[in-house]
Amino acid sequence: MNILIPHYWLLEHLETKVVPKKLQEYLSLCGPTVEQIRKVEGEPIYDIEVTTNRVDSMSVRGIAREAAAILPEFAVKATLAPLKLIKVSSKRDLGIKIENNPKLCKRILAIKLENVKLEPSPKWLQKRLVQVGQRPLNNAIDITNYAMWELGHPMHVFDWDRLREKTIVVREAKKGETLVTLDGKKYKLLGGEVVFDNGKGEIIDLPGIMGTKNTVVTDKTKNVLLWIESVEAVKIRQAAMGLGIRSQAAVLNEKQVDPELGEEAMLRGVELFKQLTEAKEGSKLVDIYPKRAAIKTTLVPKKLISVYLGVEMKNERIKTIWEHLGCEVKGEKVKGEERFVVTPPSWRASDLMVAEDYVEEVARIYGYHNLPSKLPVTAIPDNPSGDNFVLEAKVKQCLADWGWQEIYTYSMVSEELAGLSGYPVKSHLKIKNPLTSEWVYMRRSLIPSHLEVIEQNKSQKQVAIFEMANVYQPQKGGLPKEELQLVAVTNGDFKVLKGVLEALLERLFLKEKEWKIEPIEEGKAPFGPNQTGQVWSNRTCLGYLGRVGKTTQATYALQILVGPLIKIARTCPAYIPVRNLPPVIEDMTFTLPEKTYVGEVMKRVRAVSRLIEKVELTKVYRQNYTFRVTYRAEKKSLAYKEIKPVRKKIAAVLEKEYFASLVGKI
Amino acid sequence: MREKIMNIKNEALAQIMGAAGKEELERIRQDYLGRRGKVNQILKNMASLNEEEKREMGRLVNEAKVAMVQALEREGKQAGAKGEGWLDVTWPGKKPTMGRLHPISQAIEEIARIFERLGFYRVRYPEVDWDWYVFESLNMPPGHPARDEWETFFIEAPKNARLGEMVLSTHTSNGQVREMERARKPPIRMLNIAKCYRRQQDVTHTAMFHQFEGLVIDKGINIQHLKGTLDYFARKFYGAGAKSRIRPFMFKFTEPSFEVDFSCTNCGGRGCRFCKSGWHEVGGAGMVHPNVLRAGGVDPERYTGFAFGWGVERVYTLKPGLKLDDIRLLYGNNLEFLGQF
User: Fold this and answer.
1) Between A354, A375, A479, which is nearest B290 by CB?
2) From CA B274, how far away is CA B314, in angstroms rounded?
3) Per-residue pLDDT tens over the stretch A420-457
4) B102 vs A408: CB contact, 8 Å cut-off?
5) Which residues in chain B are closer than 8 Å to A405, comparing Cβ atoms?
6) Are residues A227 and A155 in contact, defined by beta-carbon separation less than 8 angstroms?
7) What is residue B82's predicted lDDT score, i.e. its pLDDT?
8) B115-160: pLDDT as tens digits
């Protein structure tokens, strides 16, 4: 959360001569980050990011406190100015019955102020509110915002006369109750929100978040009830999130504003009311504070500081840092071990809880920039995980080197894309709170996303893309199975895609006979029927390839399971001695019936004789297929007459098994 | 005599036309026009002729010489084009088909290599994970305001009694407790690079993005080691002059917590239009919170550790000279864009 603080306002709480640029640098190094210094009407305004655990810093005074602890570390004089507060002298009764529920509300402060003169705030106050991003309304409302900005505790002002029943009951809302907030918006409550009731069942405030229209000040207001409460932070958060009201009050109150701050803020509010609205005290200051929160004292072993910082610090130095931040510190020695007993100030009580929290305070004020920078010299672990990231990278690099462009598409897909995955939309993991209808399901196939990319890149004549990413298979009662897939898609030549698979497997040192492709007639969506091949290695399915999509331009995809592929991959080949004997190379042309799987034919040829080393497809003309057969024997040169019977056998086998007729004579 | 001159001339011209390079042309020139060349031989033989014949023959020899010199000159110029001695190096090259790794893959590989040298090993953990690993074991109980920082996607699935709701992991920190469970015992030097998801999409955020998370746990690990590791990464990833710095921040799963800045590669840290302060914020880091160590079964009395987790996109777009100011382009899959990387 960010807060805007004008430099001159800060100086009312911080006695220092520091220039804004330096204050920005020093605060950012040791405390909250000053993201920028804005110039508004020539005056520097700090835009400061305060972390959610430091709601105590969400005010002018809170930043002044931090600065007073940090600046002296940079040899810049700075002290926190004392807070001058008025006293309330009235002894009159408040005249309002308050029924608190201490479980819901830790503290209530209230005072009646009479004869309030409502008008626009004076220029100086309006200017400050505008500079910090608040809209001035009238003096009564502006005072509450001003005091909150200055001291960090939200407060509220009721129209005294509109509180007809003169009763305020703190209770939890029932589901379905409604209220209208001061900005005129109607809310149906979810139940459990802390509300104020007028004793007759009517809600008259949504405390700590926003006032309601029925009790807020109007143009006609004469008397007001100035009010501060400390509702349980968890309750504020539930209500503010549930109803979607992110007022500044809610943003602060949900992070446990220190109830101790309430009194200071209240007195500042009264002072401003007297000053700006000519109000008179109408009652004493009521303070319902059933139980002060216990402040936890922590033991911090001195050793812990050197363990975390890696430097030895003097006890006095450590003590001073904590004391500058408002802590009480005692040093002691127990069984030869030095340690500190530290009690935080009330405004840090919910943030400084364990010894490590105190170590952080010492470290940051000492300055992280003052610590040396060293590489760890401890033992290098030797228990790698099962994934082979090196081979995965090699596979990707191969494809890129062979001319394929890697893409990254979103894991989340639209209903339409999910429907094209080959799995029913229902069998996809669904996002409960999608950002757009484009991203609703966790995909089960990358192919639809890739077809979309091809469609988007129509201007490119030919596209060859690939991606390695997870698909998500829902599992009953558990996390989905995340399966890493390699998918390559092209609208070019199928043979090039197939060649990539062959080359890839060769690159991973798999022998040709160690894998095969089986045509699947019924297809495997999104691969079409009669156009799908399943890739096998032994009994492991490595994936699929074939034609995909419904576009008129043929598109082909390869989908490989990375896990099984990596498992069978080798890092080196099994070397075969190089043969110096010359091979005999011959071509044979066959006429094959239509729709003959030529790969199977070639495999069959290869199996005819041990003398056959290699079979290649060199030419196709209509149904005529020319195969180049390489013959080679292991220990001698082959003679023509030794090949003839093999050639005869090839022709015979193909004729018998594939109805193939040889073109020409043997 | 006349015939002889004509023969020599024709013979020379034929040889010149058929010459295969400058060297051969030079040899031909020597043969015919050199001091002891064929032309001079003829001139020597002219002594026996009468004046008229001498004038006539002299004219013929001269014509032959001029023709030869011109031919030599012409062929000499062209010899380079035909011969071995000349190569047109300005001819447009024929490129192999160039594919490319996606910039995110390139960045991931570079990051992994840098940390590998420091003994970090890579791991892989679920992208779809339980609330326990993503938040609760990291010291963020359900409903805690600190969770607001992470705009979380929830999955429609039954809650697990022990581990809570199923979510898309908003950061790679879900690997912290998982890695402690896997490794059982320090030392741990994990590098978890994975896809993460947050419910936001703008110039600097994409709903799907990548983070890399380092986790080091051992005896005696302190803030100096974190600083050393960050500086090492900055120098290797951005160049020798790059520096890192840490500033106070708050994460529930680290104590102390830091925001990490790298010095601007554009101005070298002096401050420029691009960085404003000389630094670029890249992400978070911190000393592992004792509660997180406990959640992972590691004894915080004996071990300490540090962790950091940053966006791959973020650190990549700060590379000097890249000038990529809209990270959505990385996932737009415009092939003309990707073809530049």
Assistant:
1) A354
2) 14
3) 999 999 999 999 999 999 999 999 999 999 999 999 99
4) yes
5) 99-100, 335, 338-339
6) yes
7) 55
8) 999 999 999 999 999 999 999 999 998 878 778 777 899 999 999 9
